[in-house]
Q: What sequence folds into this?
């Protein structure tokens, strides 16, 4: 049941169908009439008259919806389910113009050329219906999900076969109780002639009463569509009930604010839809205020970047058991699998010994002790002291005195040279 509103009335907001719901046989979901009406009320739609084909006729709802707005169309219908023969015959006006067959089959007897093929195909077979329709008609009109613009294969198809897209701003319900399937829908129209790109338009909104399943009444007079894709023609105004004991000025301000808020939200939604579809078709968009978005630039030679040195891997940690050369594993408590049953107290003892350097990790032998430095003898100390005195004396002398001291050191020794130098300083 629909969730009631605060005042106890039932909510008209459509609920979404879970994706796990069982689908109908042959994707038999009748098209709501208001979807057809929103498309056919466009002034410059330019769909030719003559012979039209409904290749997925179903109960004939699309045929009846079109006939309520356009006269003089000669219909043929194809339907895979024989139980709908009588309904389709009543819709098209003759049993002879109804074929119970698969539109995608190779039956050449029913393949004729039509002015328009108009249908809502099973989405899983949408691409095949479009390709088959383009072979048998000048103009192909199909109600599809906007997701039909996605995937690489479909994008490549659109590049070669641009279409005009008419987006339905209201979610479409194909089942009872007004449930939707989380998807946005649009009418795709492929026209004759070679084209480089298509167009994107957003159709006017439909009231909740007109969106009921089975709505077939004559549509109300349409409001003019906006030429600007960023603006959606608003629905009929619903000012709401007057508030009791309220200042009329406040009420008017509230109504004005509400209308402005709704218009802003609708414009934002329309702009997002337009940008997504225009990007898919490659249609250039009008320049707006502010700084333009960054565009792709020409290829620039890559700048050489100095690569940082790779981080060195830490050395492998070996098993702490003396003499073991196996790699320690965390799963065994940082010992090898051969010593995983050794007591933890012994492992701790081996690890502490290795840390102190008493046992090497590879062989288990004690490391070689460093060589002891020989102590300096008194004789060496006196010789070093005398050498320092000699060098200091030479620095204090100049010219002939320095040469005389060096000669004395060579002939009589450093001690006599130091005494000579000290005597020269005193003199």
A:
């Amino acid at each position: 049941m629909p969730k009631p509103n605060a005042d106890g009335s039932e909510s008209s907001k459509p609920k979404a169908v879970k994706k796990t719901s069982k689908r109908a046989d042959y994707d038999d979901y009748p098209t709501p009439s208001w979807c057809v009406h929103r498309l056919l009320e466009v002034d410059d739609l330019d769909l030719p008259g003559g012979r039209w084909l409904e290749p997925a006729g179903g109960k004939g709802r699309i045929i009846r919806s079109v006939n309520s707005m356009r006269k003089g169309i000669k219909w043929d219908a194809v339907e895979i389910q024989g139980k709908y023969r009588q309904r389709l015959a009543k819709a098209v006006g003759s049993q002879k113009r109804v074929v119970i067959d698969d539109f995608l089959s190779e039956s050449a007897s029913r393949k004729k050329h039509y002015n328009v093929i108009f249908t809502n195909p099973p989405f899983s077979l949408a691409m095949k219906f479009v390709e088959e329709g383009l072979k048998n008609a000048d103009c192909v009109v199909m109600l599809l999900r906007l997701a039909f613009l996605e995937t690489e294969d479909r994008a490549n198809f659109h590049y070669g076969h641009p279409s005009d897209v008419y987006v339905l701003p209201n979610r479409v319900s194909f089942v009872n109780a007004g449930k939707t399937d989380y998807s946005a829908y649009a009418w795709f129209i492929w026209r004759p002639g070679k084209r480089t790109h298509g167009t994107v338009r957003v159709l006017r909104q439909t009231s909740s009463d007109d969106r009921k399943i089975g709505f077939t009444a004559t549509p109300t007079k349409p409001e003019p569509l906006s030429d600007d894709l960023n603006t959606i023609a608003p629905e009929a105004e619903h000012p709401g009930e007057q508030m009791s004991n309220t200042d009329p000025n406040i009420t008017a301000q509230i109504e004005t604010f509400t209308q402005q808020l709704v218009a802003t939200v609708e414009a934002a939604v329309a702009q997002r839809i337009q940008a997504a579809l225009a990007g898919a078709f490659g249609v250039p968009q009008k320049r707006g205020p502010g700084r333009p978005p960054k565009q792709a630039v020409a290829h620039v030679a890559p700048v050489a970047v100095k690569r940082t040195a790779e981080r060195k891997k830490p050395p492998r940690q070996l098993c702490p058991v003396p003499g073991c050369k196996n790699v320690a594993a965390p799963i065994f408590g940082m010992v090898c699998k051969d010593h995983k049953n050794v007591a933890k107290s012994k492992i701790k003892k081996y690890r502490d010994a290795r840390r102190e350097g008493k046992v090497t990790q590879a062989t288990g032998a004690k490391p070689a002790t460093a060589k002891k430095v020989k102590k300096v003898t008194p004789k060496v100390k006196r010789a070093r002291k005398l050498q320092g005195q000699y060098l200091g004396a030479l620095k204090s002398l100049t010219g002939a005195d320095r040469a005389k001291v060096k000669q004395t050191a060579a002939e009589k020794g450093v001690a006599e040279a130091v005494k000579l130098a000290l005597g020269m300083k005193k003199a």
